[in-house]
Write a structure and sequence with these properties.
The chain is α/β, with parallel strands linked by helices. The protein contains eleven helices and 13 strands. It has helices spanning 13-18, 43-51, 63-76, 92-106, 121-136, 141-153, 164-169, 175-184, 206-220, 237-251, 263-269, and strands spanning 2-6, 21-24, 27-30, 33-36, 57-59, 79-84, 111-116, 155-160, 186-193, 196-204, 228-233, 255-260, 274-279. Strands 10-9-8-13-11-12 form a six-stranded mixed β-sheet, with helices on both faces. Helix 2 runs parallel beside helix 11 (263-269). It starts with a strand and ends with a strand.
Length: 283
Amino acid sequence: MRLFADSASDLPKDFFEQEEVVLFPLRVHIGDEEYEDIRTIDSMKVYDAIRSGVHPKTSQASPEEMMKAFEQLAKDGDEGFYIAFSSELSGTYATAVMVADQVREEYPDLKLTILDSKAASLGYGLLVKEAAKLRNAGESLENIIEKVRFKADHLESLFTVEDLDYMAKGGRISKGSAFVGGLLNIKPLLHVEEGKLVPIEKLRGRKKVIKRMIELMKERGQDLDQQTMAISHADDLEFANALKEEIESVYQPKDIEVHMVGSVIGSHTGPGTLALFFFNQIN
């Protein structure tokens, strides 16, 4: 069985190599240069560009690369499962579905399931890791799809940004809101709802953000001591560790993975972003 994922999962490059998960990189554009997320650019280049006043742009994964991978899957007679970045945040999922339909015109027996994760960053990454773990354990494709879909439906994603200006430049909020927020140290707390970014509230200062995230975990989470959860940060390991330590002191989860926000998502949220991912039901 062949697994596919794209770079918006924010998993490290060695994960894809070691777990033999096929990577479809989204693309980052800085000035006249185009880069493949994870393959040819790392997050720090994006954050350095933003700090210097350059606003990177992004585009979806290559249809040509998908076509080649899906055709090879069909030729090999193998079965595949592509867990894709939220369709509400990227056109990559829709493109993959279109490409798969084209491949089926020539290879009608193509055995490929494409799942809209409705997730981003390490929340999406947790789903990909679950699929790899289940595949390695010898689970059938049907069971893997069912279990990953269940986790996708019960994933909670909370995040904040350090500077509202970055989101204003990306069109997420008004420039006026960004200016006021910066003066008052106001930080928005958002979550992902049906794949979309939805504001929850605004908080003043990092300590209140962490406190509120902990409260929301209690309200929304289930069996937190049995979970592997994740924290992603945009070049702010201190902020990520502060949240991690607070969670561990309150809930003692099974594990907390901490990674950097990738180049594509970081291009839209900017340095200082902090995101937390856990599940509201685990079985």
